């Protein structure tokens, strides 16, 4: 079976392969490939945006898969529509021009800054990527994402600032509130630290538009070997970058008419929204979709499940998802006038979780679980107390499972591993070392001390969660039961 290359794609895809580069993208992840790059590709097919993408890969080494496939990859859109009809479509995406390693070829990336056609910068570097790190942006390369972006923007300013003033629209898609404003703040601090000057700061202010945005599409990425083989047999070629995505998507971008003009593809898609205020879309997605994911993933994983779909086939886990969403998230959202619409949105999310084609790995959802719990669920827990004055028992159950998930049983090369049954899993979390230390010597009898220590850590939660009456006690009780009787048994007792 041949490898996917430009020689074997049909003529319909050839539209994009000679278009100018208009987008610089930080990140090679499946979400960007399955949503943003996919939509740009679809717009190019309709001769609207007419631009390709240079992707910055932060890790060392060449991007062999992209190079071998001429930047092409397949997105398989699979799911069930509202009428119960199966959707199973495959699209060969040709929007990516090339992938460049920042570690190996930073100068090549800076050359893109001098490209007169460039209009847009997109990023997805996980929630912890947008953080200010005091560093020299003239390193080869700078280390942090904001420093790389600052260096790139400074190179563009040196080329065009004060002449034709070719600014850009910057759209971070990291799942943090006000991601555009926070990224701008990092760039401004780096400009001051590196003494880039008043003219650069003026150019930055008037010609670089940082947009808050949010993205929503379940893109689990590469399927398992059997599904991969089945899809490739149907396609007639091998694709190392084959990506599976659900039919639903949303890309909401906070911007004005200038942003709308640059993002010309916005006119083509009902679920690509450019608006001056996207807080409603952000809040409902962050709390209902992402919040339920983060509350449920450790609970489901330690109960023996590997993907979300398996959870939704289990009576206890399925009821847990429904209960945490309908009973504890939706009632606390600050949009009383949209309550009916929010319930419909919640129902749609549960239907998306039940999509049999999407193999969304729970262990992947737990990436940076601590920061996600804080960003997605702490405010909901606080709102629940304010509204109902009692413990949100489903969030307490999820929190107890999260604490147990963070228990490391061994460490190797500064990596920490938990245990499920006879197998070990990587705790991929910046707080892994902290939790490893906290769990040292803890027994069933003393686990309450750990719970109080963690919940009172204001550096993690930005608040003292032990001040929420009964929350620490409930979490301790549930965690104790999990340690004595197992997670699945505790879940079933609590939910059924």
TrEMBL record:
GO terms for molecular function: mannitol-1-phosphate 5-dehydrogenase activity; tagaturonate reductase activity. Residues 22-263 form the Mannitol dehydrogenase N-terminal domain. Its EC number is 1.1.1.58. Keywords: NAD, Oxidoreductase. Residues 277-482 form the Mannitol dehydrogenase C-terminal domain. One of its GO terms (biological process) is mannitol catabolic process. It is an enzyme of class 1 (oxidoreductase). Pfam families: Mannitol_dh, Mannitol_dh_C. One of its GO terms (cellular component) is cytosol. NCBIfam families: PRK03643.1 (NF002969). This is Tagaturonate reductase. It comes from Runella defluvii.
């Amino acid at each position: 079976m041949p490898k996917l290359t430009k020689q074997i794609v049909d003529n319909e895809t050839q539209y994009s392969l000679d278009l100018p580069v208009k987008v610089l993208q930080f990140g090679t992840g499946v979400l960007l490939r399955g949503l943003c790059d996919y939509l740009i590709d679809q717009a190019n097919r309709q001769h609207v945006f007419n631009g390709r993408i240079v992707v910055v890969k932060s890790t060392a080494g060449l991007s062999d898969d992209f190079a071998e496939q001429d930047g092409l990859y397949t997105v398989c859109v699979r799911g069930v529509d509202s009428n119960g009809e199966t959707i199973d479509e495959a699209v060969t995406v040709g929007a990516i021009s090339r992938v460049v390693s920042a570690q190996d070829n930073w100068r090549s990336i800076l050359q893109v800054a001098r490209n007169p056609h460039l209009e847009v910068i997109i990023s997805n570097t996980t929630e912890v990527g947008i953080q200010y790190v005091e560093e020299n942006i003239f390193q080869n390369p700078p280390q942090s994402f904001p420093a790389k972006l600052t260096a790139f923007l400074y190179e563009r300013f040196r080329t065009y600032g004060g002449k034709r003033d070719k600014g850009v629209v910057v759209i971070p898609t990291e799942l943090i509130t006000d991601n555009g404003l926070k990224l701008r703040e990092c760039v401004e601090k780096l400009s001051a630290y590196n003494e880039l000057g008043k003219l650069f700061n003026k150019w930055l202010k008037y010609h670089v538009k940082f947009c808050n945005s949010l993205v929503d599409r379940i893109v689990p990425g590469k399927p398992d070997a059997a599904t991969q083989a089945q899809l490739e047999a149907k396609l007639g070629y091998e694709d190392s970058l084959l990506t599976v995505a659900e039919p639903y998507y949303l890309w909401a971008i906070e911007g004005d008419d200038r942003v709308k003009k640059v993002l010309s593809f916005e006119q083509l898609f009902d679920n690509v929204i450019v608006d001056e205020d996207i807080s409603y879309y952000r809040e409902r997605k962050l709390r209902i979709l992402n919040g339920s994911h983060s509350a449920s993933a450790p609970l489901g994983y330690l109960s023996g499940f590997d993907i979300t779909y398996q959870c939704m086939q289990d009576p206890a886990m399925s009821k847990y998802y429904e209960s945490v969403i309908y009973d504890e998230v939706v009632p606390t959202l600050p949009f009383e006038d949209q309550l009916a619409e929010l319930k419909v949105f919640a129902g749609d999310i549960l239907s998306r979780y039940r999509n049999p084609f999407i193999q969304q790995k729970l262990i992947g959802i737990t990436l940076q679980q601590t920061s996600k719990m804080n960003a997605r669920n702490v405010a909901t827990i606080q709102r629940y107390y304010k509204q109902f004055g009692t413990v949100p028992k489903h969030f307490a159950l999820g929190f107890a499972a999260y604490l147990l998930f963070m228990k490391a049983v061994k460490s190797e090369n500064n990596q920490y591993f938990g245990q499920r049954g006879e197998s070990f899993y990587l705790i991929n979390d910046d707080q892994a070392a902290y939790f490893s230390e906290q769990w040292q010597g803890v027994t069933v009898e003393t686990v309450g001390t750990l719970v109080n220590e963690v919940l009172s850590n204001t550096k993690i939660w930005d608040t003292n969660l032990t001040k929420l009456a009964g929350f620490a006690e409930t979490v301790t009780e549930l965690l104790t039961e999990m340690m004595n009787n197992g997670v699945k048994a505790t879940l079933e007792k609590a939910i059924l």
